[in-house]
Amino acid sequence: MEKLSIILPTYNEKNNIIILVNKIIKILKNYQKKEIIIVDDSSSDNTYTLVKKKFKKKKFVKAFQRKKDFSLAKSIGFGIKKSKGQLIIVMDTDFTHNPNLISKLIYCCKKHDLVSASRFVKGGSMYSLFHYVLSLIFNFILELLLNSKMKDNLGGYYCIRRRALRKLNFNKIFYGYGEYYFRLLFYLGKNKISMTEIPAHYQKRNSGESKSNFFWLLFKYSLEAMILRLKNI
Length: 233
Prior knowledge:
Blueprint: E1 4-10, H1 17-27, E2 34-40, H2 47-54, E3 61-65, H3 72-82, E4 87-90, H4 102-108, E5 114-118, E6 125-126, H5 129-146, E7 158-161, H6 162-165, H7 180-190, E8 195-199, E9 201-202, H8 214-231
Parallel strand pairs: 1-2, 1-4, 2-3, 5-8, 6-9
Antiparallel strand pairs: 4-7, 5-7
Helix pairs in contact: 5-8
């Protein structure tokens, strides 16, 4: 059995993170070689303190608090560097990403270096039809612009083998917000890493408010994608 690391970036997720970690522990109750890594960007709601207190007796649950240079992507990159697993799963902590897919991601990663939970392959979906259609159109543009073989270039819920990360320059990928994911897929593609997608339903966040503005992100991500493409012509 390969060691598994699950990376959970948090910012003001005190109403979600304990429920999520307990759910993951239940799903992986028979998976012996595992670690759950929570990386908190100095939440103002004491997410980090709550996690440390709640799981202090579970040695495989590890919490880290970042104190500067905050960003979702940098938290994920930090968590990956701290992890020890041959398999690494990255997921959001607001229940947008359904933890019930974890076992399937692990199973499918036996044959691939990266398995992505996708809204846009057959069987995939999203809680909001409006956001689904806009995201589908934008992902189609990303496919063309970046010559991507993946349908969902912004999902950010995936299982990856550590060996696939070894040749990557983290500083070129893990910065900003969710756009880091299409940079990751882009550079993995250039290295001819084996990748596939499985269908997923992206849910409405369980508690709290989104930290992002949908239309601002579309603009920002479009700009980042064009910059990425121009740098790699």
